[in-house]
Write a structure and sequence with these properties.
With 161 residues, the protein is an alpha/beta fold. Helices cover 43% and strands 11% of the residues. Helix 7 links the parallel strand 4 and strand 5. Helix 5 crosses helix 6. The protein starts with 9 loop residues before the first strand and ends in a 13-residue tail after the last strand.
Length: 161
């Protein structure tokens, strides 16, 4: 695990970002994101849920994760997290079949991450769902969370063309 530096954003990466390193359409942005983690630009946060989902990932994704997970802070699924997830489900942001997606958002929110990074455009990084997650966060006394894909947090070059 890297030492905590002040002012470095805590970023929760869901399983899709790890999987993206071996997907031609997402590889560059995913690898760049994790390189920025290695450089200390982001404080990586992950969870037991990510580790559980990675267990069934292709071998090359699992191998990549083995090199990155030691850099991460792992947060736990607590009663507080489950309660927030239940609030998302009750609000109908996602259905019960997508409960794991809402659990990622709840984990990142309760952990106080400033950003959640995902390639899941249907249930997490979605223009209608992000304000809904944040409305539930606010009603339940949590800070809002920025939800973006890896390129949106600098997964591609930040240099001007």
């Amino acid at each position: 695990m890297l030492p905590v530096r002040r002012g470095v954003p805590r970023v929760y990466a869901d399983t899709s970002v790890f999987g993206g390193v071996c997907d031609p359409g997402f590889e560059t942005a995913s690898r760049t994101f994790f390189e920025r983690v290695r450089m200390g630009e982001f404080r990586l946060v992950t969870s037991a849920l990510v580790k559980q989902e990675l267990a069934s990932a292709p071998p090359e994704v699992r191998e990549f994760a083995v090199g990155v997970l030691p850099l991460a802070e792992e947060v736990s699924v607590s009663e507080e997290v489950v309660d927030l997830q239940a609030a998302y489900l009750t609000a109908g942001i996602v259905g019960p079949r997508r409960a794991a997606d809402s659990l990622h958002v709840a984990l990142a929110t309760v952990a106080g991450c400033s950003v959640l990074v995902s390639w899941n455009f249907k249930h997490i990084v979605h223009f209608r769902k992000i304000p809904q997650y944040n409305a539930i966060n606010t009603v339940n006394g949590y800070q809002t969370i920025a939800i973006h894909s890896p390129p949106e947090v600098g997964g591609e070059s930040d240099e001007d063309p």
